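**Fold tokens**
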Amino acid sequence: MQRIIIATAAALVLAAPASAQESARERIAEEYPELELVYVSRVNIGAPLTIGETARGNRRLIPITGGSFEGPEMRGEVLPMGWDWQLDRGDGCTQIIADYFLRTDDGAVINIVNAGTLCPPDADGNPRPARTSPVFEPPLGKYEWLGQGGFIGTIGFDPAASEPHVVITVYRAK
């Protein structure tokens, strides 16, 4: 549906006079922001701690044990402190809320709370994208821009990896 809307908007832009085309392009850019890579991280995880069945679903805690991240404007390590608080819901999806810390190669410590939902493949067996909404609390200064924008994350898994981890890629909406 979103592709149809974008294609229709693009056709209208091309048919309009030049001044109207620029205005339409600005509106499209506002509604459908571009994404800019912030970093790719490899987050190491420990063995899950099963909390058990709760009124909301089955609960578990996944320790975050370290890792690394790198992007165009920042790089460093994932500190070995933090957790991913997971809830298996009745619809088969898992709600995640991870709270952990990055330390940049120049010493800044940045807190991240990253929430999302992971769902099983659809009825046709097609995988569903795993998206998150990271929120950063950086120190004032060089990295304060992280606390001033909108971000989206993707989660990937590498079953062939030698140690358990997830790959989280974070993008900033421009």
Summary: The longest strand covers residues 57-70. Residues 35-173 form a domain with the Porin fold (CATH 2.40.160.20). The beta strands are 35-45, 49-54, 57-70, 75-88, 94-104, 109-118, 131-137, 151-157, 165-173.
